[in-house]
Write a structure and sequence with these properties.
The structure holds two protein chains of two kinds. Chain A is α+β, with helices and mostly antiparallel strands. Chain A contains three helices and five strands; from the N terminus they run ββββαααβ. In chain A, a hairpin with a 4-residue loop joins strand 3 and strand 4. In chain A, helix 1 packs across helix 2. Chain B folds into two domains: 93 residues, no CATH class; 185 residues, 3-Layer(aba) Sandwich (Rossmann fold), CATH 3.40.50. The chains are: A alpha+beta, B alpha+beta.
Chain lengths: 92, 285
């Protein structure tokens, strides 16, 4: 499935702090703070400065974080749309 | 202004100007023993008549200063002391940029600090004042001032604002430390309590945080403590901060460091004695 392409800001635009399994993330361009659950921080990491669609994001996650599942693409697409609503990724 | 009073509270210097003598006289008496500012004042509070004729005719005190809320309701002159206190809080809440400000009370023992934070009416102020009479050093009952560089809490030991039923808990305190009983204020019956002299003498001594508690008072609540996860603590403290958003990334860094390095619990209680017991048990754990 070739869905929309998404891109996240480069890594130096965010400051992330782990909080017992969750992540507090400060987004420098907007000055906003977000509390994220996995796999959202990992998605931002693999999308930083490099656009991809949901399937490609799933593949990158599988390669880097050993996160593989049958319908990973659909789950990732849902997370991407949440991250877009939060202003942390945009269509690239 | 006709009547003026300046005072240093921890790292912050205030100037209070008033169109009337009464509020300044009450402040001088209540803040006896506090140092005068060594340098320029950080914030100015002005207590002025709401309209020129209201200086004499049904005197009505408008709270003004460097920072103002346009819709702040004026107070009766009899409540001028409360107006001065609210004015100082307002300057801090709206203008303080040197520290991360958390709405809460702080006390210290053995060089380490305990932060009590929660909604209005949770009893944090009363609890901190009570601990301040029982071997703890009261660092402040309104704001925790978090150092943006090292994360320590700076003391800000203003007078404590005791409300309603809490007044009775402090009947045996020396009268010179208590202000007048202010009845019928927008916050109910209020009486101010000057912290013990040790708290004032040590207002330059910061302390590193050791424990964060979220107290909750309720007549029907069973006394209990439960740990609070780091992400929830983080979110609750952003909500308790008056200047988190304004500070931007330095505020995020200070808050993240505080949350990462400090255990936190929520405590429920139905009486202040239960609360003191829970605090002592968690502190000793």
């Amino acid at each position: 499935m070739a869905g929309p392409l998404y891109i996240a800001d480069p890594a130096d635009c965010v400051r992330a702090v782990p909080l017992e399994g969750l992540t507090a993330l400060y987004h420098r361009p907007s000055g906003t703070t977000h509390i994220l659950a996995p796999p959202a921080p990992q998605i931002l990491e693999v999308l930083a400065g490099s656009p991809a669609d949901a399937d490609e994001v799933a593949e990158r996650l599988a390669r880097r974080f050993d996160l593989a599942s049958e319908d990973a693409g659909a789950a990732i697409a849902a997370r991407l749309s949440e991250l877009e609503a939060a202003g942390l990724v945009r269509r690239g | 202004m006709r009547h003026r009073f300046e005072l240093q509270v921890g790292p912050v210097a205030f100037r209070v100007g008033s169109a009337w003598a009464g509020p300044v006289a009450a402040l001088r008496r209540l803040y006896a023993g506090y140092p005068a500012p060594a340098g320029a004042c950080d914030f100015t509070v002005r207590l002025e008549p709401e309209r020129p004729w209201r200086r004499w005719l049904r005197p009505s005190v408008a709270i003004r200063g460097d920072y103002m809320l346009p819709d702040a309701a004026p107070l009766a002159l009899a409540h001028g002391l409360l107006a001065a206190e609210m004015g100082m809080n307002l300057q801090m809440a709206l203008g303080q940029r040197r520290f991360l400000l958390l709405h809460g009370a702080t006390v210290e023992r053995g060089g380490r600090a305990l932060l009590l934070t929660g909604h209005s009416g949770s009893g944090k102020s009363t609890l901190a004042a009570l601990l301040g009479e029982r071997g703890w050093r009261l660092m402040g009952d309104e704001f925790a001032l978090v150092d943006l560089a090292d994360g320590c809490f700076h003391p800000f030991p203003r007078v404590v604002s005791l409300k309603n039923q809490a007044l009775a808990l402090f009947d045996d305190v020396a009268g010179e430390r208590l202000g007048p009983v202010l009845r019928g204020t927008p916050k109910g019956t209020i009486r101010h309590l000057r912290p013990r002299s040790e708290a004032i003498a040590r207002m330059d001594e910061p302390a590193a945080p050791r424990l964060i508690l979220f107290p909750r008072f309720g007549r029907d609540l069973a006394a209990e403590a439960r740990p609070v996860g780091a992400a929830e603590v983080f979110v609750r403290l952003t909500q308790a901060s008056t200047n988190y958003v304004t500070l931007g990334e330095v505020g995020f860094a200070a808050l993240a460091a505080l949350v990462a390095g400090t255990p936190a619990s929520a405590i429920d209680y139905a009486s202040t004695e239960e609360a003191v017991g829970l605090v002592e048990a968690l502190w000793a754990a």
